[in-house]
Sequence to fold (203 residues):
Amino acid sequence: MTNIIKSLFERLNWQANAFTFLQMLILLSVYPAIKYANPQWFFEDGIVENIQLAICFCCFAAAWFAPRDKTLFRFFALVIILIVFREISTGRHWLCSYYNLPQESKWKDIPYGLVLYWGRNLFAIFTLVYFLWYKVYKSLWQYIKKAPIFVWEFLFLAAGVILALLAEKPIDNEIMEEMAETLFYLALFNLIWRYGYSKLSLN
Fold:
């Protein structure tokens, strides 16, 4: 553990790519969006949420087809599917709208709700079993010990989480929340791309 800590500063990588600048642009756009953007763009199933889903599917494809450490990156792809389930509420709001039910309806009160609910849970269990069965933790530990640390991407990832939490409480601003989630997903895609497709040496 001591050697890992000592190597942290040696592994810091401040190099930017095109996605890094796009992430910076999104971060700088948060306040102007709050002030001037059309709120309808940020509603449920609106333009911004559809962009987020598109980014998530790009994350999934990039992880699934990564040329190195396939079991590790395919585990990430499965996790991204769980993120998509969260983003679309596992289809709950679509079913509620279709059957004209309150959005806060319990799963058992929604037609096919329990099928979706248990389908999502079984997929989560499958993802955990995959992690343990293929010993993904071994590959993950090698990255933790030896891989470069792409500083900008992790900073943007953290910024997305912090802003999203602030947007829920105490600020309570949907535009800020959706902008933060977009930043998070784009940073996640860039991390998958940089670790899965760039030339890394973990020896």
User: Anything to note?
Assistant: The chain has nine helices and two strands.
